[in-house]
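stage 2 :: seqdesign
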């Protein structure tokens, strides 16, 4: 198949990760999510634990205390005290994402991959969303929470994703203009979301894109 990359951003509970995994399995290509941290660690020589710690810190405190720092493609070298700063750790993850996009077809979930790869012609960016009730129904299948506690948890997760995206891109996470394709998983179901992405890819890249 052609070297195309499908990026997926998603609301918590929308099933975007499931759609990404199903799509990758069906196409026989690699699926990247948390594995991107391992790749960035290996390529940078920075401990994987530092990447995980940075994610956990901002998941707890948010990005409101730090200014927006839009990713511009630079990497800070080891001679700087900012070498292991959260923003430079993101830079290394972005470098890993760009290397993947240049070398192999794959599905990448999260990590602002749509923005990092915005200038790549072989990328199809997708946002998966759904109404509140559907999100809660799906979230309840994987979280041991109920009612208001489940709603609060989902709200925190989406708040983190929105702030993460805003900090690194300067854009609003849920703005449809950031993506090539936006899908309501409650109306389509996961299998038809996969089909919709494949159809869009054929229109965009040619009928032989998956040959």
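stage 2 :: out
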């Amino acid at each position: 198949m052609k070297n195309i990359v499908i990026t997926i951003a998603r609301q918590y509970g929308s099933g975007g990760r499931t759609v990404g995994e199903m799509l990758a399995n069906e196409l026989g290509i690699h699926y990247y999510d948390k594995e991107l941290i391992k790749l960035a660690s290996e390529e940078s020589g920075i401990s994987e634990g530092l990447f995980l710690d940075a994610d956990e810190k901002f998941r707890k405190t948010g990005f409101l205390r730090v200014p927006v720092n839009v990713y511009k493609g630079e990497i800070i070298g080891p001679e700087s005290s900012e070498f292991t700063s959260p923003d430079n750790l993101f830079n290394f993850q972005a470098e890993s994402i760009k290397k993947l996009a240049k070398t192999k077809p794959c599905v990448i979930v999260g990590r602002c991959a749509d923005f990092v790869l915005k200038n790549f012609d072989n990328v199809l960016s997708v946002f998966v969303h759904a109404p509140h009730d559907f999100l809660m129904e799906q979230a309840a299948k994987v979280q041991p929470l109920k009612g208001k506690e489940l709603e609060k948890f989902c709200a925190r997760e989406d708040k983190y994703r929105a702030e993460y995206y805003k900090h690194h891109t300067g854009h609003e996470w849920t703005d449809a203009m950031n993506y090539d394709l936006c899908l309501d998983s409650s109306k389509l179901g996961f299998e038809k979301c996969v089909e919709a992405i494949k159809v869009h890819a054929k229109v965009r890249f040619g009928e032989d894109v998956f040959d």
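stage 3 :: structure notes
- The longest helix spans residues 147-169.
- The chain has a mean pLDDT of 94.
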